[in-house]
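Appendix B. Raw example, untouched.
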Amino acid sequence: MKKWVWVVATIVVALLIGGYAYSNHHATAKEYDAAMTNGRTALQAKNYTQAETYFQNALKRKLNDPKAQTYLLQTQRFVAGENALTARKFANAQNRYQKVQDTKDGSGVLRQRAKKRLTQVKGIRANVAQFKAILKQAQAQNQALDYGKSNSTLDQLFTNKQFQESYYKNLYTQALALRKANNASQSAASSSTTTTSDSAATSSSRDTTSGSQQQNSSSAALTSSESKAAKNYQGSNEYTVTKKQKELNGKVITAAQISSARQTINAAGGQADAMSDQDVRVAMQQAHKKGISLTKYTQTYLK
């Protein structure tokens, strides 16, 4: 009798344990399915942080589940791509989006979004290369003291609506600074030209009178044959400045450019006031030849 009771008791306990295990497994499976469903819904709504949480919960219900792991990793990579794009780290963003798109058995929604982002990022990177080339050209023109042409080159950037997008903020800031520098140099050169013209007019009036007096004096001091020889002389001496020595990039260096260069030299610690116009031209030519700014040339060679 006792033996029979123990057998019955054992069977009952086994049934209870088995039933509990089955019930618990069934509940866990339902929780896993619910977490995965909620995760997909969150992805659809672009609630990526919430989606990550759901996929992590699914993994708690099924440890090392390949599907939940795939969805979680794919979501994390897409979020990393979004963050890199915002931070203007375009190469990094492109790499992340590519991995999201290449994910098999993952979210189709994320693959589609990654595909669109890839197209966008590739376009942005192409624009960056183009904008950098234009900015570099404008900077070279600025170094050659061709401020007007530099501004014209910059206009190619400022008239491009895409250039004003946040993705190109760093380049936009550099372009604005360069245009400001060009305008300041042009303003200084214009002011200097006006002053120089006024001084030249006054000096010309004086020189006319003085020249007449000197001509009479010189004529009196020379014989007729000497005067004729002096008039016909077309040679050069040690103080003669050739046309080429007055040019930069094949263009004659203007008085305004010389005046602007003097200001640059003085600002860099040089002694422009003690330099002749030709000395200033030489400094400009040498700086251009060495591929450095006039400021850098002054600090290196003229101090």
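End of appendix B.
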